[in-house]
Amino acid sequence: EGMWGRLHVSYDQFIRTTQPAHKAGVRALILRIHERHPDDFYEQTYEGWYCVGCELFKRDDEIVDGKCVIHPTRDLQWTAEHNWFFRLTKYESFLKALFADRPEFLRPDTRRNEILSLLDRGLEDISITRSRLAWAIPFPIPTSDGEEQGTWVWFDALPNYLTATGYPDPSYAGRWPAQLHVIGKDITRLHCVIWPAMLEAAGLALPQGVWAHGFVSLGGERFSKSAGVKLELGDAIDRFGPDAFRYFLAREVPFDGDGSFSWERFEDRYNADLANAWGNLASRTIAMVERYRGGVVPAAPRGAVDEADAADYAAYHAAMDGSRGYLLHEALRAVWLTVARGNEYVDRQAPWKLAKDPAQAAELDTTLGTLIRQLA
Question: Which residues contact 89 (CB under 8 A, 6 or more apart)?
């Protein structure tokens, strides 16, 4: 929780699944599904390979060489339990129609294609309770033999999006549905198959969309506690500050794919983009406005707009397109093209020379005004 403050990231709520309001919301959602569709829950003994890292039973096509493809360093556990199941197969047609009617529901395209492939292979019903889990949220419906089981961690975690809005209090409707869920690419099945099915079963609106970003590795190696491949966020923040760290991740890591962090690349990007390109343009421009115009940004004479403005206008729209499409790296690339053009513009216009010639006062005003607009 404290790390968000160090990153200068604010939030409306800091949510934990242990909060009483969340537990009450999960119970209300489960009972709502059961009241609407009693046959969506049924009891069955299940046997299968369980990945502790994913908190999921793994299908045969999700196991390679006896390991979970997402957690290859962990051993799968053969588990047999008598649990409550959610009839996910009932919603296969609904999900196929969802992606046919709203292809933009899950982006980028690579992630959507993975879910479409999963749907083509066919869904399986899922176990949604566990025995002997004292820490789990109690499942509100006991088994036929009277056992009160714990709710499967994902069946209680996914409703966080809903319970954070105040559900089941009627006021939640003013904050739901969500415009966008931002998730990692390894949990698309949970967010784009199981979660929509739960909401449909409950008769509640789906989020407008889901964006599944890629992974960040450390120097090309996947983060792993057991292997000691880790990055202390505090160390990264301390190196150049939170803004520089956030800029690096947004600029260097494609939001529609995977990326890598390394201290060398972080330093190179900081020096080249922030200290040299941006820092140089900002310091020179502000100093010249102060020196030549007393700190007052000059108004450009009518008709004095030149090709720099047209290029900046195009870059602005490219940056906005990138932002609206959640391709933050492309948006920042467009911004830094403007920064590069700004430095080239300073060298080409040479305001220090224009300032020496009173006849070039209007040209100097145009130059300084253009540079300030580029900074803005």
Answer: 122, 123, 124, 125
For the range 288-294, what are the long-range contacts, defined as Cβ-Cβ under 8 Å and sequence gap of 24 or more? Answer: 288/351, 288/352, 288/355, 288/368, 288/371, 289/368, 289/371, 289/372, 291/355, 292/351, 292/355, 292/364, 292/368, 293/365, 293/368
210-213 and 106-107: which strand pairing? parallel
ω into residue 159 within 30 of 0, thus cis? no
DSSP assignment letter at 171: G
C-beta of residue 354 within 8 angstroms of C-beta of residue 363: yes
- DSSP letters, 1-25, are -HHHHHTT---S----TTSHHHHHH
Nearest to 96 by CA among 115, 78, 80: 115
Q: List the alpha helices (DSSP H) in the chain.
A: 2-6, 20-36, 92-101, 109-121, 153-157, 160-163, 188-189, 195-202, 233-240, 242-252, 263-269, 279-293, 307-324, 328-349, 351-354, 361-375
pLDDT tens digits along 274-330: 999 999 999 999 999 999 999 999 876 555 555 666 777 888 899 999 999 999 999
The residue whose two tokens read 């899922």 is 126
Q: C-alpha distances in angstroms, 345 versus 119, 147, 339, 355, 369?
A: 54, 74, 10, 16, 12
What does pTM read for this prediction? 0.85
pLDDT digits (tens, 9 = 90+) for 247-260: 999 999 999 999 99
Domains contained in the chain, CATH given: 2-51+79-217 (3.40.50.620), 263-375 (1.10.730.10)
Share of the chain above pLDDT 90, in %: 75
Amino acid at 85: F
Tokens of 332: 């920042």
Chain centroid to CA 262: 21
The 10s digit of each residue's pLDDT in 171-221 is 999 999 999 999 999 999 999 999 999 999 999 999 999 999 999 999 888
